[in-house]
Design brief:
The chain is mainly alpha-helical. Helix content is 76%, strand content 0%. The radius of gyration is 16 Å and the shape is flat. The chain starts with a helix and ends in a 12-residue tail after the last helix.
């Protein structure tokens, strides 16, 4: 297994997904209340801490062999990660602006990022 696969699989570890989810919710609440400095700190530092902690404490090779781990290693290339990150940024902006439409757009972008397996694949000529 290439070294990048287990590292990418950390994204589906329960501690990492929990850190990301709670950071997003807490940050959005803070942005809604117009506390951007604290919100950005929460939105960046909590997921970063999860990303730093999980690889040292989890068996990423075993995680990469699970169904969610396999999906992430197969279908979470950098472009899909950028789409998810864009969705997160739109959500933060939507919370700050009190825009439900932007919050819904965020949901669509994050869903698109996670659904990379359904993206059209370029044809390969022989």
């Amino acid at each position: 297994m290439p070294p990048a696969e287990p590292v990418r699989a950390h994204q589906v570890h329960p501690a990492k997904t929990g850190a990301d989810s709670t950071a997003s919710v807490l940050s959005d609440v803070l942005l809604w209340k117009h506390k951007p400095r604290t919100a950005v700190a929460v939105r960046v530092l909590r997921p970063a801490a999860g990303s730093a902690a999980v690889p040292g404490r989890a068996d990423l090779g075993a995680l990469a062999r699970t169904r969610p781990g396999q999906y992430v290693t197969d279908h979470m290339p950098p472009p899909a990660q950028v789409v998810r990150l864009a969705g997160d940024a739109v959500m933060g902006f939507g919370a700050y602006r009190h825009s439900r439409a932007l919050l819904l757009l965020r949901a669509a972008l994050v869903a698109a990022g996670w659904s990379h397996a359904a993206w059209p694949q370029p044809s390969r000529r022989q």
